[in-house]
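1st attempt posting a full record on here, be nice pls
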Amino acid sequence: MATPTLTGREAPTARPPASRPPSRLADLTALVRPGFCTNNVVVDPQGLLGPPRLHGGALGGAVAAVAVFTLASALIYLVNDIGDRDRDRRHPEKRHRPIAAGRIGVGTAVSFASVLAALLVMTVGLTALTGTAAPADWWPVAAYVALNVAYSKGLKHVPLLDVFIVALGFVLRLAQGCLATGNPVPSWLALCVFSLCLLLILGKRRHEMAVGGVLHRPALRGYTLGFLDQLLAFMAVLTAVSYVLQVQGSPVFGAHGPLVAVLSAPFALFGLARYLQLIVVDAGGGNPSRALFSDRMTVSNALLWAALLAGAWLLGRLGA
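the predicted structure (as tokens):
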């Protein structure tokens, strides 16, 4: 028996339920970019510089350095979102950020930033009181905050300076980790971190230009896709060379450093080439971390690469 229908009208269709807006706590958490906390891993470079120091002073210094830079970077992200809220509303993706979308008011965001700033000062003061680090040892954090305040006030609109300042922030993270653990800052590792970060940031700029044009970010007026592609190729080469030189002379592998550098170079080159393919061919790169960690080829290459380096380190320890 046929199901009766409404005469002259179509049967009403059920509307999909409207998605619930994020909670206030979720919005406040999103403001500090929890997904970018992995950026602060570079603060603790012990595994790249030699046998880890397991005594309390080094471990306490490493933990304190990561905590301080996590607070500092969260504060900077929040300040940038407050200042960029009008411009973010014109971006197809960033318009959904809590402040740009109007879900978090400016007053609430400023209060939250004040709390983060207070926590940052308290953490640095606590390390001084406990003897974990002297106040002068926190100069990389102070330089990071000062640079990013200048960045937020206008340097982010200056082509090239906008990407160099962001990349320099990661070198300052590395310097802070070295100070906290009592290691010297290795020049080749610092150059490798700097060039790799420039590569990732330039890839993000390329994606922004391809998707949203230059209206959202004024600094993009100083770039073209061709110019960005040349910079990306240059940074990829610089990253590969500095990586090989760092591994070759690293105390982690001792006398086997040159051999490890040769064996691991193909993995480094493949990883760099795959990233370039993702942003140039597949038009990705808007979120470098997401693009890399969600790509099976990149993850598989990284696992094999890590297994090679771990095996080389273990053989070096057994042969020592």
